[in-house]
Write a structure and sequence with these properties.
The complex is a heterodimer of chains A (about 475) and B (about 210). By secondary structure, chain A is of the alpha/beta class. Helices cover about 30% and strands about 15% of the residues of chain A. In chain A, strand 13 and strand 14 form a beta hairpin. With about 210 residues, chain B is of the alpha/beta class. Classes of the chains: A alpha/beta (about 475), B alpha/beta (about 210). The interface between A and B is large, with 76 and 56 residues.
Chain lengths: ~475, ~210
């Protein structure tokens, strides 16, 4: 019999029961909760008079709606305030752990889970947010769920699930100088497409992946959903253990050793068989920039904007032209002629300390181009903000002309006041370049933090390796 | 949840792949703490010519006359036809709520994003995945028809065109029976409460650091 994949192992250890119809009841260890997808779930519980099954599995934080301006200004948007207040009230009422606004530990839900050690190897982690795939970096089976399932987990600690297929993406060899986790994952999405992982759990493997820090691995797993897969996974190794050790929610002492013995098994067996395998040569990856309105519309900064005339599939060519029209771009334009209005460094993809360091290193001693209307840095959590300030990164950003903000999801999805105006073009370290994602009529180009920083200085895209 | 009954409905088509959940229901409407009222903002950026904010009266906004759901008879569509990877992007169940609130009961596409697909069944919306060639055929037939109707029979797993052409589709037995009977998932799972408790006991004994 073939060995097991990492996904098989975590799935089996959480299976409460198997139903005759091929579904299973899967036990959930960690439930992360935020203000946008939870109010209707809490209301549902209340109407049905159902108690919460396991309160301590929940960690809640407001992030999507919170302003990133000074705390003392409060939330001026009454609709957003009601939603954040509702989360506070629900958490207080049920006695749940919540990092409220103003708490140093508050931040983007997918940043604070790992930061607190609330995400541990081998866990099942869910959240009413598609970027829950981020936590797969810890060899945890983590996926986004809708509000009905949020309610289901609150009431039963379980989900009715059908097992996905096993897919492995191996990035062989080491990446070149100046190539980051963001470039790796954007390149992968470019190769397999936004539906390339649909119905699968993707395990990322290979030298280029294992060489990544936990921050880099989180960036890769974060964007698994952009490749169509609900969950991404990376095997547990020493890098994982070093990151987790000593965090507030992580085990300590004797139970740490016991946990590590168990976590050391969290990898696919050598003879495990995957339903789908993709191999990518790390040496081919260059700094990536998206040019369209889907993350698969991506190319190297060294390329020119693609030409729909070269696409043989007429439906695809039509889609490319629609995207170029929305983006206000002409085919065959070099990227250094694409001028930018705004720069956004932040989001659950790229707002961790390593991301801020990478951007600051490019920016140090330079100025944001005068043609750029606004350049924002939004740290992923209050603790990251503090750490960055201790390292003097905030001064580098501010002296260059960046705004240094409070933590939150911010311009990644523009639910708060941070957004693009119609027609504005942004170099963004976030995860989605959909039409209107960063503001109605806004034009998003996804890049790494270093590429966003370089673009801020030049006012247009540039290969960060040549800056 | 209401039982899913056999019906014949008007089809509206949006000929685009990768229609994302931000397009289906833009983020500003996710600030609501309710499950209802999202229908007027379904495909908001495409449906209206001026930008919208929550709480605003939509009757005063300028409709985009070119957008399919603003036209007769598609204003009354119950079936939506689209291309592959429908509803990719965020987990927002609001996308399903908005479609249903508008009156859509079925979406037909070659493929769906996983989270949306899952969310649909929790609310009584039926996503039907048909092969590329069948979807092509439906798009082609729609172009030449005025009021294009399809009949949907979940029990038999068949889509029937006005000419009587039958197209069968696949759906999990579990999801199918939940939809047909209008069953509440949580209630079903609660039947296994004792099994969940027994699992927990074994589980936390083996992995005490998670307790």
């Amino acid at each position: 019999m073939a060995g097991k994949t990492l996904y098989d192992k975590i799935w089996e250890s959480h299976q409460v029961r198997r139903n005759d119809d091929g579904t299973a009841l899967l036990y959930i260890d960690r439930h992360l909760v935020h203000e946008v997808t939870s109010p209707q779930a809490f209301e549902g519980l209340e109407i049905a008079q159902r108690p919460l099954w396991r309160k301590r599995s929940i960690l809640a934080v407001p992030d999507h709606n919170v302003p990133t301006t000074a705390l003392e200004q409060g939330i001026t948007d009454p609709v957003a305030r009601l939603q954040v207040d509702t989360l506070d009230q629900n958490c207080d009422k049920y006695g749940l752990t919540e990092f409220k606004r103003g708490d140093k530990r508050q931040g983007i839900v997918h940043v604070i889970g790992p930061e607190q050690g609330a995400t541990l190897p081998g866990m099942t982690v869910v959240c009413g947010d598609s970027h829950t795939s981020t936590h797969g970096a810890f060899a945890a089976l983590a996926f986004g769920i809708g509000t009905s399932e949020v309610e289901h987990v609150m009431a039963t600690q379980c989900l009715i699930q059908k097992k996905s297929k096993n897919m492995r993406v191996t990035v062989d060899g080491a990446v070149g100088e100046g190539i980051t986790a963001k470039d790796i994952v954007l390149h992968i999405i470019g190769v397999i497409g936004t539906a390339g992982g649909t119905g699968c759990t993707i395990e990322f493997a290979g030298e280029a992946i294992t060489n990544l820090s936990m921050e880099g691995r989180m960036t890769v797993c974060n964007m698994t959903i952009e490749a169509g897969a609900r969950a991404g996974l990376i095997a547990c190794d020493q890098t994982t253990l070093d990151y987790v050790k000593g965090r507030p929610f992580a085990p300590a002492g004797e139970t740490w050793d016991q946990a590590v013995a168990c976590w050391n098994e969290l990898h696919s067996d050598a003879d495990a068989v995957f339903d789908k395998e993709v191999s990518i040569d790390a040496g081919e990856i260059r700094p990536q920039v998206t040019w369209g309105t889907s993350p698969e519309m991506v190319c190297s900064v060294t390329d020119t904007i693609p030409d729909p005339a070269n696409e043989p599939d007429s439906i695809k060519a039509g889609g490319m032209q629609t995207a170029l029209d929305y983006m206000g771009l002409r085919a065959n334009t070099p990227f250094n002629q694409v001028l930018l209005d705004k720069i956004f460094i932040g989001s659950c993809t790229n707002s961790r300390i390593e991301d801020l360091r990478a951007a600051a290193e490019v920016i140090k001693g330079r100025k944001v181009a005068t043609s750029v209307k606004q350049a924002l840095v939004v740290p992923g959590s209050g603790l990251i903000k503090q750490q960055a300030e201790d390292e003097g990164l905030d001064r580098i950003f501010v002296e260059a002309g960046f705004e240094w903000r409070e933590p939150g999801c911010s311009m990644c999805l523009a639910m708060n006041a941070d957004r693009l105006e119609p027609g504005e073009r942004c170099a963004s370290t976030s995860n989605r370049n959909f039409e209107g994602r960063q503001g109605q009529g806004g034009r998003t180009h996804l890049v790494s933090p270093a590429m966003a920083a370089a673009a801020a200085i030049k006012g247009h895209f540039v290969d960060v390796r040549e800056l | 949840m209401e039982k899913f009954e056999k019906f014949t409905g008007i089809v509206a088509a949006i000929d685009r792949p990768n229609i994302d959940t931000d397009a289906i229901i833009p983020k500003q409407y996710l600030k609501s703490i309710k499950r209802s009222g999202f229908g007027v903002n379904l495909f908001d950026d495409w449906r209206y010519l001026d930008p919208g904010e929550p709480g605003q009266s939509n009757t005063e906004r300028r409709l985009n006359p070119e957008f399919v759901l603003n036209k007769e008879p598609y204003k009354h569509a119950q079936i939506l036809l689209a291309r592959e990877n429908f509803a990719c992007g965020s987990s927002r169940e609001h996308a399903v709520w908005a479609l249903m609130d508008f009156g859509i009961k079925v979406v037909i596409a070659p493929s769906f994003a996983d989270i949306f697909y899952n969310n649909s069944f929790k609310n009584g919306l039926l996503p039907i995945a048909l092969g590329d060639d069948l979807v092509d055929q439906l798009f082609a037939e729609m172009e030449s028809a005025q009021d294009y109707l399809l009949s949907i029979d979940l029990e038999q797993q068949v889509v029937t065109t006005a000419e009587g052409v039958e197209m069968t589709f696949e759906v999990d037995d579990f999801r199918r029976s939940c939809l047909l009977q209008g069953l509440d998932d949580i209630g079903l799972t609660m039947q296994y409460a004792a099994e969940i408790k027994a699992f927990e006991q074994r589980y936390y004994e083996a992995m005490p650091w998670l307790k």
